[in-house]
Every structure is written in C-alpha cells, then in structure tokens.
Amino acid sequence: MSAVESKTDRAPLISIRDLKVHFDLGGGGVLDKLLGGKPEKRVVKAVDGVSLDIYHRETLGLVGESGCGKSTLGRAILRLTEPTSGQVIYRDRDLAHLSERQLREERRHLQIIFQDPYASLNPRMTIGQIVGEPLETFRLARGREAEERVQELLETVGLSKRFIKRYPHEFSGGQRQRIGIARALAVDPDFIVADEPISALDVSIQAQIMNLLEKLRREKHLTYLFISHDLRAIRHVSDRVAVMYLGRLVEIADAKTIYHEPLMPYTKALISAVPVPDPQIEATRQRIVLEGDVPSPINPPSGCPFHTRCPYAIDVCKEVVPQLVQIKPSHFAACIRISPSQPNIEDVAPGDAPGLESGVGQVR
Ligand SMILES: Nc1ncnc2c1ncn2[C@@H]1O[C@H](COP(=O)(O)OP(=O)(O)O)[C@@H](O)[C@H]1O
Ligand code: SF4
Ligand SMILES: [Mg+2]
After folding, report:
1. Residue 121 to residue 140: CA distance in whole angstroms
2. Fewer Cβ within 10 Å of end Cβ, the chain: N or C?
C-alpha cells in the first residue's frame, strides 16, 4: 500500500499528490556554450514528487536537514511558491490549479508563520495595523470592531492590548513571534504552516511559543504543518512526523515511533544526533555520523538519493528509486533494503534488498 492509499478513520484536511517544485536556474543556452559554461540546463528539484495527507486537527511535523525542501513544500501547499506539477486538495478544490481570484478566497483559511518574525513584520506599521491588515484585506471587520478584534487577538497570544500602537522594533523576539501568530489567527484559519517558528528564538522562549501554538491548536481546532530542522522540537509538538531528504519524503510515522523505532537509516542518523538529557545515557549513546553535506538538488544522486551517505547502501541502491510504502501499520518508509516482512535493516542479510520483491523500488 502506498502512503497515498493509507486511510485512517479521519478525513484529511489537505491531500498532496505528487507535488513537484522545480526551480529553473537557466543554463544550457547558446550563450552558455559560447562562454564555455556548463552545457546542461540547471534545475533545482526542491520538491520532487511529494504525496501526503494532513489530517484535521493534527500537527504534522516536517523534518530534514537545511536545504532539503521543507520551506518550499510548505510554501507550495499555500501556493506562495508556484508548484511545477501535482495537486493540493483542500475542501474538494485543487489549490495548485485555482485561478488567482479563487485562490484569494481560500487563502483566508490557510496561513503561515515564519522563522524570523522581525523580517516578516513591516517595521513602519504599528502592531495594530499589522494584526488588523488581514481583517481589512478579507473584509472581516472595520473601524472600532477591527480594533476590538485586534485587542482580543493580542490577548489570545499573551500580549497586552496596550501594545496596539507600538512598532515591531519595540518588542523582543518571542513577542514578535506572538505578533506573527496573532496576524495569522486574525482570519480564523483552518491550517497553518509554521516554518521553523522557534528556530530564531532563545531556548527559554522556545517552550513558551510551542505551548502557545499547542493551546491555540486545541482551542481553535487548528491543523499545523510544523517545519523544523530540529528533531527535538518536532517530537514534542507533533502527532506524526514526516522526514524529508532531497525533495522527497523518506519516512512517515507517529512522533513516538519515529523517535524510538525509526526504520530509515537517514532518520536513525538524525535521531542519533539529538543529545539525550540523561548524562549517563548520553555518554554511551551510539551515534551514526553522516558523511558530508546534503548533495545538491541540482544534480541529485541516482537511485536512492541517500545512497552517497547511507551506511547500509549496496550497489543496487544507486539504480533503484525507493518508493514510500507502508512497512508497518501507519509507518511508511522508502528503502529497498527493508520490507513489511523484514522491517529492521540491521536484521537483513548482507547484500539483500527484500524491498525489491515487495515493490518498494522503481528503476529510473
Ligand atoms: N526561489 C528559489 N530559486 C531557486 N532555488 C531555490 C529557491 N527557493 C529555494 N531554492 C532551493 O531549493 C532547495 C530547498 O530549499 P528550502 O525549501 O528553502 O529548504 P529548507 O527549508 O529545507 O532548508 C535549496 O537547494 C534552495 O537553495
Ligand atoms: S535504499 Fe539503500 S541507500 Fe537508500 S536508505 Fe535504503 S539502504 Fe540506504
Ligand atoms: Mg526552510
């Protein structure tokens, strides 16, 4: 069964199907040849065939090293970045193919919170104007009513309503993130992409913002795509976690399972890099150190994109592209060296690729 076909009793709020975002960097033209440049066209495959269901009221964590395509995926779902192909089904409509006008109507329900709240808040606008702007844009409230709504929103995110006439530079990083959250909430959304919302904050403030997001999710029945390169942060806020590598999803399971029983060599390596608070366990902890950086998405490795860094790679991994399939109930992975009957890669005989027989791989 593929990840796409995985059904639980919950209905998905958003269904993403074979979504691709390729950035054309040019090259390959006559001028390139004349100037002695590389003859081939350069295309960044930032998101390369992602299929995923995001269920009502869940927090889906999206984790992976910097540059693997997390932000691009989050932005493409909201169509802040134009997808190259694929579908994003939300309330029976394909966001990826809506006209600008239709998209504007849906945008209200789909919001984003950014990593750097300062960069995303206009320094020349007061907090009242920033938080109130979406109310005006979507004609939800005006004048006194809008002001009252903004005051209410500030209080909801733990800020004093007296701040309404102040400017972003007068606030701390944590307070600015609260302002960003208030602005996202102004339109009463269903779905929020939280793109590294705590990565720029002091550790002491991170927990406060995570608690706030969790409280809001419960009270306002929100659904989150919570993006982070930090597995620790993801683990505590997410119901399920999707692991991304070079534009593809390589593992999806509930947060506890991802953390305690990961199947993919890549996920195991990410987890082994997370320090354990207990000093005794920390001293004896086994670490899988990944060699080298994430390869360039311009010329990704053939076959399994992880083969250049995978400690379990065998020759066939260079040729076969693993598909994301169900290995255990509600646990999906993309590795040809495991299968539902042999889910633990450590137990697989040297050189064996049991996933090939069960259709995990696809020659490309
Ligand atoms: N507008 C763009 N044009 C060209 N390349 C881009 C653009 N946006 C992102 N990329 C590239 O796409 C890849 C994924 O980027 P991004 O989604 O920001 O990764 P992440 O959020 O996981 O760090 C990177 O190689 C990045 O350089
Ligand atoms: S398919 Fe091969 S290279 Fe890819 S994760 Fe599995 S063992 Fe490693
Ligand atoms: Mg990013």
Report:
1. 21
2. C
